[in-house]
Amino acid sequence: MSAAKQQHNNILLAIVGFVAVVIIVALIGFFALGRDPELMQGQVEVSEYRVSSKVPGRILEIRVKEGDYVKVGDTLAIIDAPEVRAKMEQARGAESAAAALELKAQNGAREEQVRGAFQVLQQAKAGLEIAEKSYNRVQRLFDEGVLSAQKRDEAFAQYKAMEAQCKAAQSQYDMAVNGARREDKMAAQAQVSRARGAVNEVSSYLGETVQTAQMEGEVSAIYPKVGELVGTGSPIMTISMMDDLWGTFNVREDQLGGMNIGTEFTAFVPAFNKDVKMKVYYMKDQGSYAVWKATKANGQYDLKTFEVKARPVEKFEGLRPGMTLVVK
Fold first, then answer.
1. Predicted local distance difference test score (pLDDT) of residue 50
2. What would the mean pLDDT of 267-291 be, rounded to a whole number?
């Protein structure tokens, strides 16, 4: 009886010892290893703009290479566009023609026409003078009873006709001296302005054949080769503005930890094995079910993922687009 009891006690002790060992090992593993910290991984991004032309043409020359750093005004590429040059010749020809018409309207009639109108006026005045003298003689003879009223009326009609002819000649002479009408001069000026605007328009297109840097940055990609055709608005190259770098993180909302606009945090840069201090300036939910996560297997509620953007607080030399950022 005592032997059986002794055996039973030994079994209990063995079980208790095994459980104690398991608990001790678990505790040691828990405290020694602990849980791996949750990491938020992001990457460095940069502002870019694409260089493109308003006019189609053939790439005549590319003045830069990928990796070159350009400043505002540096020539990047030259495009051959003979159609634009032809339109410029047409526009300049139209401008010259409009300017000549305006000059004609401003100067008025030709000098020969003015002299001719003046001679006609003098002729009309001479005829009027003769008609007036003739009428006065006929009138005196009529008053003396020598001539009939019919003769007097005929002389008076001739006098009035010559008077009207003289006035018409005077109007023709005045018109020749004054030149074109005011409205015609305004129309001629408008035609010149229109032609000048066409020249300016074509000049702007002609300026598009020489592409210059609008912003300072690094040439990150060049798309066409020399000799290739590019269409209107086709990208020629991409310029990365290296002064405008930021980090983008996709963070589940339960990992935000109260992060807000203006929050500062430290990110690890594996490429340099250094930390960089960053400040949040943008937060927005992704809004797609693909980035939701159920908190329980039965889907009690879902966690959304937010896109968080942050800029370095201080300039970090060597930081480049695509580099990894890690936040614990």
1. 94
2. 85
Q: pLDDT band at residue 281, thresholds of 50, 70 and 90? A: very high
Look at residues 207, 199, 187, 202 and name the one whose alpha carbon lies nearest to residue 95. Answer: 199
3-state per-residue secondary structure call for the chain: CHHHHHHHHHHHHHHHHHHHHHHHHHHHHHHHHCCCCCCEEEEEEEEEEEEECCCCEEEEEECCCCCCEECCCCEEEEEECHHHHHHHHHHHHHHHHHHHHHHHHHHCCCHHHHHHHHHHHHHHHHHHHHHHHHHHHHHHHHHCCCCCHHHHHHHHHHHHHHHHHHHHHHHHHHHHHHCCCHHHHHHHHHHHHHHHHHHHHHHHHHHCCEEECCCCEEEEEECCCCCCEECCCCEEEEEEEEEEEEEEEEEEHHHCCCCCCCCEEEEEECCCCEEEEEEEEEEEECCCHHHCEECCCCCCCEECEEEEEEEECCCCCCCCCCCEEEEC
CB 272 within 8 A of CB 318: yes
Residues β-bridged to residue 276? 267
- How far is the C-alpha of 143 from the C-alpha of 150, rounded, in Å? 13
pLDDT score, position 278: 94
CA-nearest of 101, 103, 53, 113 to 78 is 53
Which tens digit of pLDDT belongs to each residue from 69-119?
Answer: 999 999 999 999 998 888 888 989 988 888 888 777 776 666 777 777 788
Alpha-carbon gap, residue 25 to 32, rounded angstroms: 10
